Amino acid sequence: MRRKSITLPFLSAALLLAAPANAADEEDTHGRDAWVPSDLVGGVYQEHCAVCHGENLQGAAQGSALVGAPLAQGDSVENLVRSIAEGNPEKGMPAWAGIFPDARIRSFALYILEKRARPASQNENGLGGLPEIPGGVISTELHDIRFETLAEDVLHPYAIAPLPGGDVLLTERTRGLRVVSADGKVSEPIVGTPRVYTDGVIQGYTYTGLGWMLDVAIHPDYANNGWVYISYGDRCSDCNAASRASGEPVSMAALVRGRIRDGRWVDEEQIWKADTRSYSDGTELGVGARISFDDAGYVYLSVGAKGGYERAQDLGWPDGKILRFHDDGRIPDDNPFVHEAGALKPIWSLGHRNPQGLEFDSHGGLLWESEHGPRGGDEANVILPGHNYGWPRVSLGMDYDGSAIGGGKPHGIDPAILEAPRVDWTPSIGVSGIDFYEGEVFPGWAHDLLVASLSRNEVQRLVLDGQHVRHREILVRDIGRVRDLAVGSDGLVYLLLEHAKGNRVVRLVPGKAPL
Asked: Is the pLDDT confidence value at 94 over 60?
């Protein structure tokens, strides 16, 4: 039986977190161009709004600037929708309600907030000039910090996992698993890991593709057992109806564990692999495949809605689910759907779009997930057994053509079992990796959730009060796309930065350099 949720109010980024964000989200599993807002919306803006507010929203004689300055009516989505709909007759701005449908007006509001939130470097899609890593000391609310570059010889990065002693495991989508030493030397790819493929590379940047190396994590008792877990795209051709019909390869996320010995991958054990009927040609940027352990030794794997959004609501498919296993791959007897006919036994939760971060909060005892929405609707969720997170029936974001997705209300889902996000980032920040700070180097951040951003090029710190967020700070800005972050056992914060002109592993260290 499905467990019912305690529904909680949505937390709007525009209201709770105060700052708008960029809606760039390259992880769209269906191949839409999500790096720029809808051409339709931009074209209508140029036709009806640019004469007063400027072609680039910079303002004109008749109208105020919509970027680079405060908005008179506030910069939440709701305030902008109201302002556009009602107009300002005293200043000559017409009311657009009744001229444009509600969905189009909301799309205009998102368009403006997307433009306002664009990073100074213009690097929300990983192209353009290589962002500079800030030099010197950066003052944050609680600690002074500095950047140190650990490694630069990185290709198509996806995940990092710090090891005891200062080394860092690194996955590269098209190259495999490598080890970055504490002094910054990058090893050759570890020999014997699952095969990876090199297609899907466009101008040095991986956007579409199948058969990649994805996440990496170490067992909680790694110091004694040496187990390393990796997720990857298991790729095949002529292996199901879809691949035979198209003549193209298909894939699905898979999870294995093994040990690294003398530069080789040994002792491999399969934790999970799906039935090939679920394999699809959707890009693996949409699968997530993040790995996390809880304090009871269970391992979790996120699987995005790679093979079609509707599968996220179907318990017979792995798409759009978070899966739970014993650390050796056995299915726990208390998984919520283990006795439900037709359901996949590993399913822990459902209704996910594109999970990009998965981390257990050892202090609060809860599993948290970060997830890409469409145009808006990025989420931070508390993952509870058997709960439904709504995709694709409901989202606070909009589709890329400006149409509503459920209008913020569930369709076809019992509200009693629908779990609301603890944070909604609308417009999107391109949320990616997350981790909880449990080190001693930055004691003021104890138990806080650190959040990486792709399109906003920043790292956020969320202060939690149980399952709620009570404060947000942007620790660093405009550093390029942050694909992953992780807190090392040394208390330092490691960041994986990606860009078409160069990828880097860097770390945040105390602001005062050692003597």
From this structure: yes
Does residue 230 contact residue 215 with C-beta atoms inside 8 Å?
yes
- Find where tokens 């330092």 sit: 492
Q: Which amino acid is at 491?
A: G
| Residue-level pLDDT at 29 | 38
For residue 46, is it within any domain? yes
Neighbours of 344 (CB within 10 A): 22
Domain count, the chain: 2
Averaged pLDDT for residues 34-62: 61
Distance separating the N- and C-terminal Cα atoms of the chain: 61
Residues pairing with 510 in the sheet: 145
Instruction: Look up the pTM and report it.
Output: 0.85
81 three-state secondary structure: helix
The enclosing domain of 91 has a CATH number of 1.10.760.10
For the sheet containing 449-453, what is the strand order? 431-436, 449-453, 459-465, 468-476
Q: Using a CB cutoff of 8 Å and minimum separation of 24, what contacts does 127-130 make?
A: 127/203, 127/205, 127/499, 127/500, 129/501, 130/480, 130/499, 130/501, 130/502
Expressed as residue numbers, the domain containing 92 is 36-117
